[in-house]
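re: ur question from yesterday

yeah so i grabbed the chain u mentioned. its 257 aa long if i counted rite. heres the sequnce exactly as i have it in my notes:
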Amino acid sequence: MLFLLMWPTAPALAWGVEGHEVVAALAARHLTPQAAVQVRTLLGGDPAAAMIAESDWADEIRDRRPETARWHYVNIPVSATGYDARRDCRGGDCVVAQIGRDLAVLGNRQLPKPRRAEALRFLIHFVADIHQPLHAADNSDRGGNDIHLRFRGQDTSMHHLWDMQLVQASSRNPMTVAARIAASVPPATWRAWQSGTPASWANESLMLAKRDVYAVTGGKRNVRLDPAYAAREAPVARIQLARAAARLSWLLNRTLK
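ran it thru and got these structure tokens back, copy pasting raw so excuse formatting
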């Protein structure tokens, strides 16, 4: 993973809007011609531009569609060894199950175009979400939202730190950032990432949360972080964005043949 560790430090980039845009832009670079045509048909316009524009749509609609709120994450206990659908996704109400449902809708050419387009918008967002470690782990703290931090002179939460402050880039343009990440990931690594299931990706995020969040906080709810924490963890966040993009493009290429 040292290829991403060597990417220079620069202004903060949110995993929120900008981070989702980077995943979409990077995934769009790896669409097959057939998948690109389908994305153009469903979303309209240039596939990359459309995917970037729609990448945060699932967050934008949460207030008026509250039933979608739990689709953004899965609360796997940090004490667990991995994802258990019966314990962690009752009624299929979590990001792991929702990715599967959206793939089924997207791949069904008999369904109306608007319904398949909505499934595509959700997939673009949720595949990124499942790669954020605190969207897949919980210690009775709402995925780190209740871990209060004093970091670089400011009050924040561990979840917010991972969502909004760790991913760094040398440009605010998601296409530029995506190009730089693409250049830093060896093709063999990209291909190796294109495997697994939503459940296995959630388990991967859980392991990162255990190692890089809960091992650091020691279960405490009020933490003063080492100022070097962000520099250590920013490469982890960038790798997770790259993995998300690799897997998103893989899913779309398989589903939109």
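noticed a couple things. Residues 44 and 112 are 15 Å apart (CA to CA). also The first helix runs from residue 2 to 5.
anyway ttyl
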